[in-house]
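Supplementary Methods, section 5.1.

A reviewer requested that the exact input to the structure prediction be made available. We therefore reproduce it here, unchanged from the version used in the analyses.
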Amino acid sequence: MKAARFYGPGNVRIEDIPEPQSRAGQLKVKIAWNGISGSDLHAYLAKIPKYASADKEDEVTGEKAPVTLGHEFSGTVVGLGEGVDQDRWKVGQNVVIEPVISCLKNTRVFCKAGTRNLCPGANFIGIAGWGGGLAEYIAVDTRYVHILPEGVSLEVGAMIEPLAVAYYSVKRSGFKKGQNALVIGGGPIGLFILKVLRSIDPSALIIVSEPASGRRSLASKHGATLVLDPLEPGADGKPSPTTVPSAVYQATNGVGIDVAFEAAGIQAGLDAALFSLRPRGTLVNVAVWEKDPVGISMNLVTAREINIIGILGYTGIHPELIEAVASGKIKDLEELITRKIPIEDVVEKGIMALLNDKDSQVKILVHP
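The structure derived from this sequence is encoded token-by-token as follows.
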């Protein structure tokens, strides 16, 4: 079968590899769609520890690079391994894969508690091995699979994984109806956060900061109250670091924002989020950073008693998220798909397009 194989930064190859067969406790899934993620883009540009390396076996999968890429995917069950519950799982079911994996050792407290994302060895299918969504088929343990309800398309199914990051981020933030929010970064995760926030409070003040005009337009279309360009020049003709905080304070009558989500992974965005928060506001870091930020104003954090929350993927929220999508509480996700491509084009029309054309590209789906 065809698969996009990750060898390392700047090196993704379309290759023919053996088609997997389901072992005991596994389903064989014919993959329909796989979304290219922001972390895939980071890995293509620079070495990221969680992505498979040729130098060291992954703790959980035992694999080295090359591995099959892709962790945002949906598909259809085409085979059942020995011992699979045939009352629950059937050939022909449309499914989505929850790709977070861990050691599952009872000696590790977080694995024992079921919070796989906090295991020291936590990783992802499609990043560390065990197959991936950029292939024609995958064989996967049933514990990582969720049934897609009728009415939820396979295209939307391929967006459940990044939407889960957004859903988990909002849940961890404690955002509730009557509060306001700032989203730094209008890429896929930022736009998904916007949609989750809007599903909680249709009338909340939600501000999105994003330099790409096309993504700002999408943010407006999908419910942002106010959309800001952080690179808009000030009176001196240069972008001002106070552009976003000034607009936030004007919009909140000088109070500041309740919850700020940093989904861009850049120093300027982090600073804008912090300085926009009201006293006892909450900063949620969602982004994956290629390098740690140069600094953070801890005196500001202390003076305003700011809460800082980190997000590592998600845990335990897929069933309620899928129900929210199926019920229409979170809707119009298809409108964020800006391109569909075959697997042969994954580098040039997928990865490179997202890196070089952020103005018009948001979520690109690949059909293996």
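The longest helix spans residues 160-173. These observations are discussed further in the main text.
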